[in-house]
Amino acid sequence: QLQASGGGLVQPGGSLRLSCAASGLTLDYYAIGWFRQAPGKEREDVALISWNGGRTYYADSVKGRFSISRDNVKKTLYLQMNSLKSEDTAVYYCAALRDFAVPPNYAYWGQGTLVTVSS
């Protein structure tokens, strides 16, 4: 299972760090990613990271502002989000995929965490 946390209310320009804890999953075998879903909008694949961290992908909308990382020992995935904008408001989900690919084909995902960017 994958459980995202760290969401909340933040002002535009602020920062948040999301975490994703994995259980019952050998994280080393999977690429991991974050996607988000805003009301009335399609899913957007935000960031991906390969099993060893050697490859990353970012959506154009977050490039230069978000940073994805992972700690396979702690079985945890992170998404550092800086310079947040109102359009970043969404429920954020972490997910695992067997192969690093864009667009990603997620094998597992869990409950998301809500990020609200508003003044």
Taken from the alpha-carbon principal axes, the silhouette is globular
Please outline the major beta sheet: 7 strands, mixed
Number of strands: 11
Count, helices:
0
Q: Can you give the mean pLDDT?
A: 94
N-to-C CA distance: 34 Å
Q: Which parts are unreliable, with pLDDT below 50 for 5 consecutive residues or more?
A: none
Our estimate of the beta-strand percent is over 45%
Helix content: under 10%
Descriptive terms for the model:
4-stranded antiparallel β-sheet; globular; 11 strands; single chain; mainly beta
Can you characterise this structure?
By secondary structure, this protein is mainly β. It is about 0% helix and about 50% strand. The strands form two sheets. Strands 2, 4, 5, 6, 9, 10 and 11 form a seven-stranded mixed sheet that branches. It has a four-stranded antiparallel sheet with strand order 1-3-8-7, with no helix packed on it. Strand 5 and strand 6 form a beta hairpin. The protein is globular, with a radius of gyration of 13 Å.
Explain briefly what this protein structure is:
The protein has 119 residues and is mostly beta strands. It is built from no helices and eleven strands. The chain starts with a strand and ends with a strand.
Break the fold down into its secondary structure elements and pairings.
Elements (H helix, E strand, L loop, with lengths): L1 E4 L2 E3 L5 E7 L8 E7 L6 E6 L6 E3 L7 E6 L4 E6 L8 E8 L10 E2 L3 E5 L2
Parallel strand pairs: 2-11
Antiparallel strand pairs: 1-3, 3-8, 4-5, 4-9, 5-6, 7-8, 9-10, 9-11
